[in-house]
Amino acid sequence: MRAERWHVRRHEALDALRLSAGAVALTALSACGGITLNPDPVLPRPLLQPLPSVVGLVLPNELRNFVHQEKRWGVEWRIALGPGHVHLLRDVFKDSFRQVQEFNDLAAARAGSGLKAVFEPLIDQYSFITDRDTGGRYDAVTIRYRINVYTPQGEKVDTLTLTGYGSALARGMSNGKPLERATLAAMRDAAAKFLVQFPQQPAGQQLAREEPLSVQSGVDTAANVLIEAVPIEEAGAQEEAAAPPTPPPAAAPGAVPAKPPASPADPPKPPGA
Predict the structure, then answer these.
(1) Strand, helix or coil for residue 82
(2) DSSP labels for 91-137?
(3) Calpha distance 163→61 (Å, rounded)
(4) DSSP-assigned beta bridge partners for residue 148
């Protein structure tokens, strides 16, 4: 019995120490003016055959300049997602199609030549929890995306929605690095889902035949096509093996708003909360 009591008290002391260290770190960070993160992932080259079509990729200013700002536990967080997503999306579409032409807006894409389709990816929501929220255990991130699909003439065909999940173990005093790793994991998760699942969608099958998309291409599909799957784990990522389960899947496609929400959504809850 004494050994059991000592074991319990030891774990209680360790948990209290983690929370105390986290509080000290957050106090120091608050005094320094907060944390700024610039996650910029490197996407491994996928072993996939790109679709043979030529497509347009619209990266609007809304995406290029996307910044999530939030105050949590007295600390100002500023996560600049735009530049990293520009690099990520260029790599994803380059690996997905034979040729990609990039544009700043849909009007410029309409003037493109030889296109079979036009894609406009957007970030709908970014939410996170820190090690302070999870008792010093881990950080977790959810990023929800919306990809508008157009004909070469700029007529909307469909909307794809997908969600990326990521988590990272917290070690020592929080300095924003665990949240950055969790954000990078969520971005890679979403990229993997698109690369693997889009060719199975009706639009992907049509582009595999090098047929241009038309308004009729989206008639037999839902208003929003959901790309969703269990997050793909990277081989050899031992530190992620002990990470907690990912947050629950996103809501049904029809529940995804047509526009980004006016205010940030509630952050993902830790498992068992």
Answers:
(1) helix
(2) HHHHHHEEEEEEESSHHHHHT-SS-SEEEEEEEEEEEEE-TTTTTSS
(3) 21
(4) 120, 159
- Give me the residue label for tokens 């000290």: 24
**How many whole angstroms separate alpha carbon 50 and alpha carbon 117?**
15
3-class secondary-structure state, position 72 = strand
Quickly count: other Cβ atoms within 10 Å of residue 172's Cβ: 13
Q: Residue 248 has what pLDDT?
A: 45
Mean pLDDT computed over every residue of the chain: 78
First to last CA, the chain: 30
Contact (CB, 8 A) for 27 and 73: no
Question: In sequence order, which residues have a C-beta less than 8 Å from that of residue 189 and are 6 or more positions away?
Answer: 164, 165, 166, 231, 232
What kind and span of H or E run contains 14? Answer: helix 2-31
Please report the pLDDT score of residue 220 as a whole number. Answer: 52
Residue the block writes with tokens 């004909």: 151
Q: In degrees rounded to 5, what are phi and psi of residue 256?
A: -80, 125
Angle (deg, nearest 10), helices 82-96 and 177-197: 30
**pTM (2 d.p.):** 0.71
pLDDT in tens, 193-250: 999 999 999 999 999 999 999 988 665 554 455 665 444 333 333 344 344 444 444 4
The DSSP call for residue 27 is: H
CA distance 136 to 131: 4
Cα 205 from chain centre: 25
Kindly report, residue by residue over 152-206, the tens digit of the pLDDT. Answer: 999 999 999 999 999 999 876 567 999 999 999 999 999 999 999 999 999 999 9
